[in-house]
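Hi team,

Filling in the usual template for the complex we talked about on Friday. All components are listed, including any nucleic acid strands or ligand strings, so the model treats them as one assembly.

SUBMITTER: L.P.
PURPOSE: interface mapping
COMPONENTS: two
RESIDUES: 537
SEQUENCES:
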Amino acid sequence: MEEHRGKMKNTKFVILMLFLGILGAKKAAALPAFNFYAGFANAWTSTSTTDVGYHVGWNASADVNWNIRVLLPHSASRIRSSTASILISPGFRGQFLDLAASNWLADGSRYRAWSAFGLGPEIGVGLNISHFGISRGQTFLLSTALLGNVAHYTQTSLYNAYMSWLIKASWDLELKHGWAVSTSFPVEFAYRADGRSIVSGLGIGVKYAF
Amino acid sequence: MRSEQKKEPRGENPGPGHRRMFLRAIALFVCAAIFALAFSGCEFFPTNASTLGGNKYAVVVGINDYINGSDLNYCVADAESMEKMLEDAGWTVNLITAEPDEAIKKNATKSAIETALKSVPADTTTFLFYYSGHGSIDYSDDAYIMPSDATTSSYSSLISATEFSGWLDSVTATNKSVILDSCYSGGFVDAGDSVDAVPGDSAFMQTSTAADMFFRFGELLAQNAAASSTNPSTAPLVISAAGWAEESAEPLPTDNPNVGHGFFTYYFLDAAAAGTNGHMKGDSDGDGVLSCIEAYDYAKNALEQANYGYLPHITGGLRDFALIDNR
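RESULT (copied from the run log):
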C-alpha cells in the first residue's frame, strides 16, 4: 500500500512539473519537418531453438513529423545566453531495409537474407538547444514507432509481413534556412513468425523543418 | 598581472572552448567505441563458423523403371550425379535407384524408401532427401511421389506429402532439406510464414509483383501470425522442381542428348560446378559455401530463361542450409 502511494506521488509530481513547465513557457509553435536518412544496418536473428545469426546490410528511411515546440523560459536554461525548447514530435515513418544472409552457424545453417518496407506512426520527445558548445542549434530526439512491414526473402519469390517496434535516438545540427544535418541511431524489434530480429544501424541524412 | 586577470578561476562555469573540447571528446569516444565493437570480432558481430560441423547424411532416390507405369530416362542419372556432388562435399549418401531391365535394382519401392528414412543415423546433424521420378496429384489436389512399385489404381501405393512428412519426423537431424524433381512436387512445399508470388500453376496464373504483395498486407500478416505456432523456421526446407499443378520435364534423348538429366536437376547440379571466377556458379555471395537457396535460385533463373513452363518453389521460414562447403 505504501509503495502504491509512493508511485501516485511520483506521477502527480511529473504531471505537476509538466504543467508548470508549459505554463512558464514563453512561446509554443507547431510546424512540420521532413527527415531523410540512409546508412548501414546490422541485425541479429534467432528462434527459440536456434543460435543467433548476424546480418549486415543497409537502410533508408523518411520521417514526416509535426514538431510541437515549447520554448522554455529563459530562467529554465542554466546555460547563459542559450535557449532551450522541448519538442513533441508526432508523425509517420517509412523505411526500407535490405539485409544479407547471416553468418554461417556451426550446425551448417544460416538465416535468410531479406528486405522489408515498413510504414507506421511515430512519436518523439526531445530537446532543442542553441548556443550550447557550438553556435548552431541542436536537437536531441528520442522517438518510437510501430511499423507494419512487407518483407521479401531475397533470391526467392516469397513475401511475408511482420510488425516491429522501433526506438530511435537522433541528433540534428541546424544549418541555414530550416535545413539540418541529422544522425540517427534506430533499434528495431521485429516479430517475424517463429523468430525474432533486432535491427540496428546508423543513419546519416538531412532534415528540413518549416 | 594581466595574465592573472585573463585566467578563469577553476571550478566555475567553463567557457565555450572547453565545452567544444568536451563535446569533441565525447564524439571521439563514441566513434572509437563503435569501431572497436565492429572490428574486434566480439560476440555482437559473429563471423562465419570456420567449419560447418556435424554429420551430413542424404537419402538419394532416382527411379527410371516403374514396375506398373511408364518409364523415365534420366532419373537414375540425376540421382547418381546428386550422390557424387554430395559425397564430394563430405556427405554420406544412401543411393536408391530403380533401373530398367535389371530386376535386382528395383529397389526404390515404397517400403524401401520408408525404411531408408527411418534408418537415418541418430547422430545426423544435417539431412537431405532427394527424389527424381514420377509425381502425381489426386482430385483433392494432394500431391504424391511415386515409388517404383506404385500402381495407378490406388493412391495408397504412392507416397503422399502427409505420409512423407510423418516419415521425415522420425529423422532427428536439426537441419532437414528435401529436393524433389517430379511433377506436381510443389504440393510438398508449404510457404510457411510467407505467400509465394509465383503461383503453382504459373502457366495459367500471373506472378504477383512486389506492389501486389504490398496491397495484400493483411493476408501476409495473418500468415505470419499463424506461422508463429507452426515453426516454419525449424521445419524441413523443401525445394520442388515444379508447382503443385505443373509437370516437370526431362528432355527426350533425341532432342537434347547433351543434357542427360531432368531440366531442374541439370541446373541444380550446375549451380555447384566451378564458374570462370573459380567460385561455384550458384554461390552468389562468393563465400565459398553453396546454400540450398542459392542453388534453388540458380536453377529457378535458368528455368525461367529457358521457359519450360514450370518453375521451382521453396518453403518459407527464416533459415537456409549449407549444401557444399568449398572454403
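MY TAKE: Confidence is low (pLDDT under 50) at residues 1-12 of chain B. The radius of gyration of chain B is 27 Å.

Thanks, L.
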